[in-house]
Amino acid sequence: MSTKTSSLSNHPKQSGQLFSVDVILALVTFLLVLYTITSLDSSIRQQIQLNEKEFARETAATNAAAVLLETSGHPSNWENGIAIDSIQSVGLVNNANQLITSKIQRLVDLNATNYDELRQKMGASRYGVELTILNLQTNAVLYSWGVSPGTSDQVSTINRVAILNGTNVLVRLKVFE
Amino acid sequence: MTNRGIIHSMDALLSLLIVLVVVFTVNYYVNSSALNDSQQSDWLKQMSVDVGTVLEKNGRASTAIQNNNVSVIRTYLNQLPHAWCVDVSIFSNNDLNSAILAVVRPSCKTDASEYAVTNRSIVVTSGSSVSFYVMKVKAWWRT
After folding, report:
1. Is A95 within 8 Å of chain B by CB?
2. Is A40 on the interface with B (CB under 8 A)?
3. A interface mutation test: which of B25, B30, B85 has the most A CBs within 10 A?
4. How far apart are the first and last CA of chain A?
5. Which of A19, A96, B3, B143 is the residue whose CA sits 20 to 30 A from A69?
6. Terminal-to-terminal C-alpha distance of chain B
7. Taking phi first (over 0 means left), then psi (-120 to 50 degrees means alpha), and beta for anything else, what does residue A160 get?
8. Do residues B102 and B89 lie in contact, with contact meaning Cβ atoms separated by under 8 Å?
């Protein structure tokens, strides 16, 4: 016991130096890890937010397209002069994928005055919406509804095929923010 | 004393390595398109259902069966958006192993890693006789 005490007291600097190297190494390692995590953290957060926004927008677009092409709306005769406040949802078919001209026409007629209410009834009130119905064979635009996205907007596009008065058509729905 | 220091450094290096592997793995998966993949898969199923529905309702499936010729279906498939690839097979309801008619959209490779399949019943009436068929629609994205 006495020998050890004597040995330590004879070499106080050596012991202190070893301890300092350990601390410096640990500190450098810790700072390196901290810096790496901090620098990656912001990019990870940003990417998650972008993914969530994109996922939410694409889900809204998918659901809006389903409402339009798979339901007749509520009430189902909403195209027959029903007041906009009494319309709960808008659908463009009576049977899946078979578009009804009168429903499309009512939607188009209400575009100028009730765009905001109608996109809400499609389940896409947070986004801009553009609906285009094209002849599948010629690509000619048969009907267009809504607002076109700007060049800087992030756009989710859904393409669905359907029939309109015996003509094969492509229904293109763009949801953007 | 020197040996103990080396052992501590190895521990530190190991833990550092693990931390960095975890951090970069999280970063990789966040940046990958896992969310998009699930949406793409949903759209694929929707594409398959839509094509089957339209082929049934516009009468092209029935016409192809009655004429024993797939040209009306092929014409329709060629009008679809460029990225869509579709394979349509029609089976008699009493033999679901061998298709009586089959058509793949021209210029589509059939080695896709992911595809969606839907089946629809087709009823064809000819005079007083009624025949039942099953139409299988397989859809995938063009690569």
Report:
1. yes
2. yes
3. B30
4. 77
5. B143
6. 62
7. beta
8. yes
DSSP three-state, residue B135: strand
What does each of the 143 residues of chain B score in pLDDT, given as a tens digit?
455 555 566 776 787 788 778 878 877 776 665 556 677 888 899 999 999 999 999 999 999 999 999 999 999 999 999 999 999 999 998 888 899 999 999 989 988 889 999 999 999 988 888 999 999 999 999 98
Check: CB of residue A122 under 8 Å from CB of residue A144.
Answer: no
Q: Which residues of B touch A161 (CB under 8 A)?
A: 50-51, 54, 80
Residue A110 is which amino acid? L
Q: Is A89 helix (H, G, I), strand (E, B) or coil?
A: strand
B143/B112 Cα distance (integer angstroms): 8
Six-digit token string for B137? 């629609």
The per-residue DSSP string of B28-77 comes to HHHHS-HHHHHHHHHHHHHHHHHHHHHHHHTSHHHHHHHHT--HHHHHHH
Residue of A nearest to B27 (CA): A44
Task: Tally Cβ neighbours within 10 Å of residue B141.
Answer: 16
Q: Do A158 and B8 touch (CB under 8 A)?
A: no
User: What kind and span of H or E run contains A155?
Assistant: strand A155-164
Strand partners, B121: B134
- Residue A19 sits at the chain B interface (C-beta within 8 Å): no
> Could B43 and A161 be called an inter-chain contact, meaning their C-beta atoms sit closer than 8 Å?
no
